[in-house]
Amino acid sequence: MSSRTVSRRPRTGRRVGVRPGALLLLFVLLAALLPVPVLEVGSPGRGAPLRRPVYPGYRFALRYEHSLFDVPVTEAFEVDLWGRLVLYEVVAPDERIAGYYDIPGARAEVVPGRTRLYGFRFPYRRLTVAATPVGRRTYEDRTCRLPLSAVAGAWGPATLRVRLVPFGLSLYWLGRGTADCATRSAE
Can you tell which superkingdom this protein's organism belongs to (predicted)? Predict the structure, then answer.
């Protein structure tokens, strides 16, 4: 029989390779840089005071007072998979609104005191609307009510669009956008 001696190097306590903490830090940094869609509500030259992280299917509305018929109108939008703002429904208490919008292929549901146009989809990459004091156009979602005149000034153009931003920045805007919304809705 032969006897073999195996020599081992003494352990120094140092690990070889990548440390788990470094991998976690790398993962967090990469996740913070991933692009996510954010809805911006703003005005040229004034910036975008409201930014909301959104997802396909995210819904919001623009409400305003129609100057011709003197009735409240709600235009319902949703964000699609490509980051477009899609108008999919219009609701007003006056059936004349159906003729005013004259949307090809739209179906109308008319009951006394309410007309609903639906069954259509108009996509917009960027939506620019007049923020008139007469119409009192307002952005609304589940947690926010923002008069567009507060964003664009009286008679100024207000712009809505979806833009890709780093995930970390969208988290910052999520908290900040809600605060802006709360203070501006009281105006």
Answer: Bacteria
**String of DSSP letters for 103-140:** -TT-EEEEETTEEEEEEEEEEESEEEEEE-TTTT-EEE
Asked whether residue 29 is assigned to any structural domain, the reply reads no
- Whole-prediction pTM: 0.76
Residue 15 lies in a domain: no
Residue type for position 86: V
| Within a domain: 101 | yes
What is the strand order of the sheet 47-53 is part of? Answer: 47-53, 35-43, 156-166, 126-131
One pLDDT digit (tens) per residue for the chain, 187 residues: 556 666 666 666 665 566 777 777 776 666 666 778 888 888 887 777 788 889 999 999 999 999 888 899 999 999 999 999 999 999 999 989 988 998 888 999 999 999 999 999 999 999 999 888 788 899 999 888 989 888 888 788 889 999 888 776 666 655 555 445 654 444 4
What is the DSSP track for 136-166?
A: T-EEE-SS-EEEHHHHH-TTEEEEEEEEEEE
The answer to whether position 26 is within a domain reads: no
Burial (CB count within 10 angstroms: exposed 0-12, middle 13-18, buried 19+), residue 177 = buried
Running DSSP on this structure, what letter comes out for residue 75? E
